[in-house]
Amino acid sequence: MLYEKYLHVIDEKKDEFCAVSDALWDNPETAFGEYYAVDLITKKLEENGFKVTYNLSGIPTAFKATYGEGKPSLGILAEYDALEGMSQVACETEKKSIPGKDKGHGCGHNLFAGGSLAAAFAVKAYIEEKGSGSITLFGCPAEEGGAGKVFLARDGVFNDIDSVVSWHPEKMYMVRTRPSLANVVVDYTFEGIASHAGGSPHLGRSALDALELMNVGANFLREHMELTSRVHYAILDAGGNAPNMVQSHAVVRYMIRGVDSDTVKNLWERVDRIAQGATMMTDTTVSSQVVSAYANLVTIPTLQATANEAMHDIPLPVPTEEELAFGRALQKTVTLTKEQEKKPPFAMEVLDPAPPVAHGGSTDTADVSWNCPTVQLHIGNWAIGTPGHSWQAVSQCRGSYAKKSMLYAGKAVAGTLIRLFENPELIKKAKAEHKEKIGDGYICGLTADVKPVIQPKAQ
Ligand SMILES: [Zn+2]
User: What domain range is 336 assigned to?
Assistant: First the structure.
């Protein structure tokens, strides 16, 4: 294995990284409230000679930690937020929540943090010996619906970084090639006139009617938009629960997605007009407020090829009989294809990057990718067939195979970064590809008036 002596740092300190991951699993915190996680991770980084900058963009749970000086300056991302409603007993093969707990790590961000910390330590060992360049671990809060990285990108936090290598828990081992969709999340608030629905309906103007008509309009819109675009909604406030009232207030949240920010902008304007149309039909008014916005992911072939080499170079974790049995038992609770049923429960090989296919999801890593060349590795921490954001994922995220593959992730990320340090021409090439892809540059979808919804720190 290339750069074995640096990556070996991860084996030496593996208990430490696994303990961080388990501690985060045991103390799940949601978007912009990840105080425990940040204390734990930054303490480890400071103890190991990293210089930590806290409170990035005024967010108490965003930080960066740098080791070394000068160029190239490369970056690693770490996430650590959990999800509401995801309480689940660890390593169980059936759905079973922990009494009194609500949150859980259904997206594997406890592993994400542990693996990225491991990578940072291995790269530190390399820089220590070579004496040039720097590595920065970016502590990114609120990936789950909070657009954490978008606030950081809006402030230019990633601008001086030559390349970022990130990863995410998945079911397969492969460099990510699929793009992600840009999106915007907008709350539409309708206001009407309250009245008794039985006694004086003619005096009322229903905000709820307007909301429903907006949804009807959006349903008709869906037939006339790009196949890759998406329009979703959730009713946040239906105006009350009394049917004998004309509802004077109603709020609906729309999420509008498209292949890039321009496509989203055009579609959003159409959705805006539908909202206006609904007010004209009902004599109501509407106001809107942007909640979050993501760019689309910019992919960089040179970084993908470099990461692919590193991933193939490092031996994959081998599941024990017990781990295989656990994986198989969990797979009984999900739907598998015939093909998947014949295979072992965990991915056993690194797949070559597939040609990019359309993907309906969005990620805030996309906003990082507009500001510096970025690559993401998919790591097979979970049994094949495990849905993200599921009890099965939470259950596995504290398991032994997930941690073994987390250590693999750390080595793969560090292996990619060390290759870049060793071959500055790769960084140059990545930057040229990036420049060409971003055209006129990054326009953050979040205007300055949109602020992160920071949770207060528990005393
Ligand atoms: Zn995630």
Answer: 4-180+297-438
